[in-house]
Amino acid sequence: MNILAYILFKAFASITSLLPLRVALGFGRGLGFACYRLGGSRRRLALFNIRRAFGDSLSEGEARGIAAGMFRSLGMMLVEFVRLGKVDRAYIDKYVSFEGLEHFEQAAKKGKGTVALTAHYDNWELLNAALSLRGFTMGVVARPLDNPYLNAYTERVRSAFGGHVIEKTNALRGMLGLLKDNGVLGILLDQRSSTKDGVMVDFFGTPASTSKGLAAIARKTDSLVIPVFIRRLKGPYHKVECMEPLRLASTGDKIEDMKENTQRFTRAIEDYIRRYPDQWFWLHSRWERRKKAGLSKGKGLS
User: Are 229 and 119 in contact (CB under 8 A)?
Assistant: First the structure.
């Protein structure tokens, strides 16, 4: 099955790579919307998460609009991902604008490395390429995909711009080494962590287990943590928004500081999602596993 899935993926990649960019993105957008209409359990999961996050502040139509927008965004992201081999500095200059990039430039002058705090938002793979092609030595932490063929393909794409792929298992040495060399460490901190590796912090008003590793690394290295997100403006055009470095708690209480700083990281992600909710990955069970939430059979969803 792994090789079959890879062959189908490569066929999709070959076809979409031959299309003009805007035509390919239109195809991806349509594919995403078709998945929204036909992907019953996934659509239900997205709607469940959206309702849980926003509660009564959204109408049913608004919630469904966010979910549909997310599926369309994912379809376009997939098309862009298989075309990343065509991306170069000229592409970035044409299609990606930056706001606040000086925060990374100033952080580099400190010489202690920089953490790019981000999330599974819009085309996070293009964000890695964009920062790399603007001259930053990037490293991203990633869990290997279950399919070894797709995993090898993904690692080639992620490292094509001179960056490093650091496997999530036993990643500490690679992360510390990158920061010691004054590189930029990309951390996506918007997924549920295990109880062992996480700390409970507030995310959209509900406790969520979140990895405490970033707080520990920032404390150990004194690296600046800069929230940065990429969002789609229209068609192939994107904007990378780099926020000011986060102020971290340093009271001397290691445990409380770790929890407070993880909360600050999580709040920065939540604030951005609230601004543009239709491009975040609502398909992850952020608060607890699907079965625990009563989602295994689509309970209470439509």
Answer: yes
Structure tokens given for 6 = 């890879």
Query: pLDDT of 146-174, one tens digit each?
Result: 999 999 999 888 888 888 889 887 789 99
Tell me, what DSSP letter sits at residue 249? Answer: P
Residue 176: helix, strand or coil by DSSP?
A: helix
Residues 6+ apart with CB under 8 A from 170: none
Cα–Cα distance measured from residue 48 to residue 298, given in angstroms and rounded to the nearest whole number: 9
Residues 80-116 pLDDT 10s = 999 998 899 999 999 999 999 999 999 999 999 999 9
Q: Which two tokens stand for residue 106?
A: 């100033």
User: At a CB cut-off of 8 Å and minimum separation 6, what does 274 contact?
Assistant: none
Give every CB contact of residue 252 below 8 A, 6+ residues apart in sequence. Answer: none
Given the structure tokens 């964000």, which residue do they identify?
Answer: 127
161 in helix, strand or coil? Answer: coil
Look-up: residue for tokens 């993105």? 25
